[in-house]
Amino acid sequence: MRCANLLRTASRNVRITTVEGLCLGGLKIHKFQGVQNKSSTVYNLVKNSSKTYSTATAVAAIQSSPTNSLSLLGNADVRCLSGISSSSLTESGGEEDDEQNCPPSSGVIKDVQDEMLKGEKSGQIFAVIHIGGRQFKVTINDTIVINRIDADTGERIRIEKVLMIGGENFSVIGTPLLVRDLSKIEATVMEKTKSPKVIVFKKKRRKGYKRTQGHRQDITVLRINSIHLQPSLLTESH
């Protein structure tokens, strides 16, 4: 009986000790968590104070700089920052577009007409033409080589497709062609011949296939005789 009582008493003490140990452990954990919360609070305070200090330093640097703070924006458009509203910017942009897209005035057309007359008299005039599937920039007495056309040697022809005419101080551009009567470009067929031979060689390896051919393109040689202009027909639509 005595041994049994001693065993009961020992087990009761062990249980109490274990429970007290758990309580003490809980207190220790609670105390450790409290210390950790305090340290994190201190860290947050230090971090916020450093941000505040850096912001205040940047503001002070901007205020103390001799240059304008808007210069820090570099190449940015700062018109809105200088007190100009977005509506005024839209209106100014519309006015610039209107100035670029507005038709030429009668005074400008008159100046171009005078320059066209001067260029025709002096012979210092050029034209961009389209003939034989290609484009050429020509002046008077130029010789050009084009693909074969249906015209006999010595025949005088008129070039219908004119994309542009210009001189020293003027240029008239078509959309894409100029009006037919605005310019008259005449040329003479000097020669109808063939181009130098071009060798065309074909081969397929390991097949014993080889072919050699020669090709000479039919060409026509033209000489530009005259470039006549009609400045009176020049309008805003040209």
Describe the structure.
- The chain is α+β, with helices and mostly antiparallel strands.
- The chain has a domain at 126-233.
- It has helices at residues 2-64, 86-101, 106-122; strands at 125-131, 134-138, 143-147, 156-159, 162-167, 171-173, 183-194, 198-204, 209-215, 218-229.
- A 4-stranded antiparallel beta sheet has the order 2-1-5-6, with helices on one face. A 4-stranded antiparallel beta sheet has the order 3-10-7-4.
- Strand 8 and strand 9 (209-215) form a beta hairpin.
- The chain starts with a helix and ends in a 9-residue tail after the last strand.
- The model is unreliable at 14-33 and 65-86 (pLDDT under 50).
Helix content, binned percent: 40-55%
What is the tally of beta strands?
10
Order of helices and strands: HHHEEEEEEEEEE
Shape estimate = flat
Q: Biggest sheet: strands side by side, in what order?
A: 2-1-5-6
Mean pLDDT: 73
Largest sheet: 4 strands, antiparallel
- The DSSP helix count reads 3
Kindly provide the radius of gyration, computed on alpha-carbon positions and rounded to a whole number of angstroms: 47 Å
Brief overview, please?
This protein has helices spanning 2-64, 86-101, 106-122; strands at 125-131, 134-138, 143-147, 156-159, 162-167, 171-173, 183-194, 198-204, 209-215, 218-229. By secondary structure, it is an alpha+beta fold. It has a four-stranded antiparallel β-sheet with strand order 2-1-5-6, covered by helices on one side.
